[in-house]
Design brief:
With about 110 residues, the protein is of the alpha+beta class. About 30% of the residues lie in helices and about 25% in strands. The strands form two sheets. It has a four-stranded antiparallel beta sheet with strand order 2-5-1-6, with helices on one face. A two-stranded antiparallel ribbon has the order 3-4.
Amino acid sequence: MSKYLISFPSAAMVVPEGEWEAVTRDSHAVIQEAKAAGVYVFAGGINDAEPTLLVSADGSTTIGGYPEAPALNGGFAVLELPSRDAAIKWAARLAQACRCDQELRVFGFDPES
């Protein structure tokens, strides 16, 4: 089984006024289904109220991330699934619930994890 990251940037989530309650309900329902199916690892959203910190090996910090990297924001879910096809099906369910396309990535196996 592999772990898959299913995510979207904040800008992708364009929800018409009055539909936020339904989006919240629908996306939480998919997460509850993932938990019930035993494939849920973690889910959430990036807290934009806290600034990104770039932390050096000596412990010093700089506000902001890597300048050449796009901003990491939005929502994500990590699910442990038996195949890429299964991951695509879960990503499609989240896309429908969130009303926006989802990016799908697989984590490389790390024997220390």
